[in-house]
Amino acid sequence: MSDVFGEAVAPVSSLALALCEELLQHAPQRRGEGLEGDVLAEQVEVSGVDDYCRSVDIQTGLSLFADNTVTGGVCTGLYNGVSVAGSLTEAYLLRNTITGGTASAGNAYGLDIQNNTFAWARDNVCTGGIGGESRGITVSNNSSAWIYGGQALAGGGTVRSYGVYPQNSAFVRLEGVFIAGNTGVNSRGVNVSSNVGETHIIGCTIDGGAGFYSHGIYVYPNEELYVVNSVINGGSGSDSSTGVYLSSGAPLDAILDPSTTLVNNIINGGTSADTSIGIHLSNSYNVVLAVNNIINGGTGASNSWGISGAGDLTTHNNVIWGADHDCEIWDGATCVSTTTSVNACGWIGCSASSGNIVADPGLDTDNKHLATTNACEDMGTDPSPYFAEDFTDIDDEKRPNGNWDIGVDEVY
Ligand SMILES: [Ca+2]
Ligand SMILES: [Ca+2]
Questions:
Q1: What are the phi and psi torsion angles at 2 (to 5°)?
Q2: Which of 70, 82, 172, 287 matches a 20 to 30 Å C-alpha distance to 130?
Q3: How far, in Å, CA of 328 to CA of 70, rounded?
Q4: What does the pLDDT read at residue 62?
């Protein structure tokens, strides 16, 4: 494998992309529908009557699947637009447009990546289909999966709809992806389920959709989650909407020891007709570090909280606010709502708290960049003790300029 892709197995997106392009130039038959000759991927037509259907089924060895448009059909059971699920050593997916089908009595996924040693996807537009549960992208049981750019849209699930569903994988990284939940009882942008290693969500734009309960990111549970430089909105759930919802429960949590690190994000609880929350911790298993984030509880009609629930929470240099807020932090007993009381760390679950600001952050009209007058410029802290990777802001500008800024924009 390595003599074909060289160092493409290294986790460097630009290098992997260059090597994929080179391979496509030397093997043009692998582009588009005509996967002939010495194929790396096998295209399978679907009859529409099986109880497990796929428009494209890639199951052998090393695979490269690029520049295809795949639309799902109709099936009684699970329907996948493209399934890459055959214990592959390496799978590469580039610039495909994939839509799941209609599953009359099952679930409908756009792209299903399972059981691979190394999976790499870039600039694909994946949309779940119509079914009980719909997912744009499923990432399950992989040793290492990297998804860059493109879109992951949930589709029309009647019970649940998820943009991306990382599950049981040792390492998953989503970077620069537009992700959205859509419909159903539960709609979620990203649903992290029992990942046993690290999950990275870097530079993504995420919306929870419009289900009964909507969540930008929902976790149950996860060992290590890093969310960095992303814009996360809880959506418009008719009962509740939450930007980041950290759920958990024994015994898995006792095994996984879950921790979540949130750095330089904009997190908004959404526009629920009832309760909206920026970040919610469901129980004391959760260890959460929040640094340099703009956290807004949203505009829930009944309750609106920046941060709520129990857990082990460290907060440094966040702006916590809301035009329609009940509490900046609701610990279940006390409504914490001033800069002084947030930083005093007297609330339930506080491990450490400093440098936080209760104020309007001063966002520009795009709700991402900082306006000329703002509360965030140079008010952050160096996050390298919590997330050691170098990362730029949403304009690809280097951080920091002077001191660190709060949110996804570094002002120059
Ligand atoms: Ca700065
Ligand atoms: Ca900037």
A1: -70, -25
A2: 172
A3: 45
A4: 62
Q: How far is the CA of 113 from the centre of ligand 1 (A)?
A: 39
**How far, in Å, is the centroid of ligand 2 from the Cα of 320?**
21
257 pLDDT band, cuts 50/70/90, is confident
Ligand nearest to the CA of 317: 1
State the pTM of this model: 0.90
Distance 148 CA to ligand 2 centre (A): 21
Domain ranges of the chain: 12-354
If you measure from the C-alpha of residue 385 to the centroid of ligand 1, how many angstroms do you get, rounded to a whole number?
Answer: 18
Task: Report how far ligand 2's centroid is from the alpha carbon of 259 (Å).
Answer: 29
What is the fold, at CATH topology level, of the domain defined by 12-354? Answer: Pectate Lyase C-like (2.160.20)
Which of these, 103, 92, 221, lies nearest to 155 by C-alpha position? 103
* pLDDT band, very low/low/confident/very high, at 250 (cuts 50, 70, 90): low
Q: Answer for the pair 282, 247: CB distance below 8 angstroms, yes or no.
A: yes
Ligand nearest to the CA of 364: 2
**Model confidence pLDDT, tens digit, residues 211-249:** 999 999 999 877 889 999 999 999 999 999 999 999 876
Instruction: Give every CB contact of residue 261 below 8 A, 6+ residues apart in sequence.
Output: 224, 225, 226, 227, 228, 288, 289, 291, 386, 387
Place of tokens 């996804």: 408
Q: Specify whether the CB–CB gap between 82 and 58 falls below 8 A.
A: yes
CA-wise closest residue to 244 among 176, 315, 188, 199: 188
Pairing type for strands 205-207 and 178-180 reads parallel
- In the predicted model, what is the mean pLDDT of the chain? 85
